[in-house]
Design brief:
two-stranded antiparallel ribbon; binds nicotinamide-adenine-dinucleotide; ten-stranded mixed sheet; about 350 residues
Length: about 350
């Protein structure tokens, strides 16, 4: 039976509005080939909307999104709006309200992509960063006292709950069991002496439940160095919100352009819609020129298909991306070419089998 999915589309700002149409069109084509129908409902929630109305999204925004099977997001961010407004006004409420406690980012060196790391070939770098997406260092607990005086101070609390640590670690172990059975934990228990030893303790407890999975852990400082020097060491890397945020930008950087990197904010229980978005932001420096790389957006769409249980369609989209990259053209300027966003999007669409 033909399945139909209702997807909320939030293109956002800048290049978000340029790459989303490529993603939607490619998924439509993949859907036709795999007996899947989509109903796309667009929302204009963005910094542009904030500038007009004072809100990134309406007060009942989450209620409006709840009924959807998935949320397909471009990027938000505008030079005249402070970044914490767009983050805390839209992305964080969705990630937290819908318990999207997994931020999943694949780091894979695809054929046709050149790594900035010397001598790395396609297939040699292939791992996932599993970032805790709901708590940790990104908390709203804290404040300022004695503002405007010489005693002024700011306090920011990090929150590490047993439930929050365990569920992200469990996800990482389960994921690794479908891959190379190896999980690496990002820590900093030498310097951060309360939350990070607790993180290590929960990691050790979870590891006991998965005796077939090899584990190791590194402090975040040396781990970033290992990402560069030994990216082939990793299979699944699990990290707190802040460390995961950093690692999941470094990851895409070692496999080529940030423009190709996909991401997913997942509620594994599927009680709420999950949200799929490229790693990159709204790129104001190139917005409006039609030269943004649409691959991160399209690949995020493949992750959405996979999450919906449409793994054949997801693989077909990933394969089409790889086919076009391996062919060497068309390429957008970030990949060293002269193609437009839609040249590359249409080539991927045409490569869908
Ligand atoms: N999830 C999100 O919506 C998200 C994520 C990151 C940043 N942002 C926001 O985006 C705005 C810009 O942030 P930034 O400059 O730090 O990061 P960015 O990812 O927007 O841009 C970083 C650099 O990468 C380039 N780039 C990014 N995506 C590209 C693509 N698809 N094709 C070609 N080149 C690409 C840009 O031109 C820029 O030089 C800020 O307002 C920030 O808050 C939003």
């Amino acid at each position: 039976m033909r399945k139909c999915y209702e997807i909320a589309v939030i293109a956002g700002d800048g290049i978000g509005k340029e790459v989303i149409p490529e993603g939607v069109r490619t998924l439509e084509t993949a859907g036709r080939r795999h007996d899947i129908e989509f109903r796309w409902v667009e929302f204009d929630w963005s910094c542009e909307r904030f500038l007009k109305t004072g809100r990134m999204m309406p007060e009942d925004g989450l209620d409006q999104l709840r009924r959807f099977d998935g949320i397909y997001l471009g990027a938000v961010g505008h030079p005249t709006v402070q970044d914490h407004v767009s983050l805390w006004g839209l992305l964080i409420p969705i990630r937290r309200g819908f318990r999207q406690y997994i931020n999943l980012r694949p780091v894979r060196l695809l054929q046709g992509m050149e790594s900035p790391l010397k001598g790395r070939a396609a297939g040699e770098i292939d791992f996932y960063v599993v970032r805790e997406n709901n708590e940790g260092e990104y908390s709203s607990v804290g404040g300022r006292v004695y503002e405007g005086t010489d005693l002024e101070m700011a306090v920011q609390q990090a929150i590490f709950t047993r439930q929050g640590c365990d569920r992200v670690m469990r996800y990482a172990f389960e994921l690794s069991q479908r891959r190379g059975c190896h999980v690496t934990s990002a820590t900093k228990s030498n310097g951060i002496i309360h939350s990070m030893p607790y993180w290590d303790e929960r990691f050790a407890a979870m590891a006991k439940k998965y005796p077939g999975v090899r584990t190791d852990q590194f402090h975040i400082d040396i781990l970033t160095a290992h990402f560069v020097r030994h990216p082939d060491w990793f299979d699944v890397v699990v990290a707190s919100n802040l460390f995961g945020d950093i690692l999941s930008d470094l990851g895409p950087a070692i496999v080529g352009s940030i423009g190709i990197a996909p991401g997913a904010n997942i509620n594994p229980e599927k009680e709420y819609p999950s949200m799929f978005e490229p790693v990159h932001g709204s790129a104001p420096d190139i917005a409006g020129r039609g030269i943004a790389n649409p691959i991160g957006q399209i690949w995020s769409g493949a992750m959405m298909l996979d999450h919906l249980g449409e793994s054949a369609a997801a693989k077909a989209v990933e394969h089409a991306i790889e086919t076009v990259l391996a062919a060497g053209e068309p390429r957008t300027p970030d990949l060293g070419g002269k193609a437009t966003t839609s040249d590359l999007g249409r080539a991927i669409e045409a490569a869908l089998t």
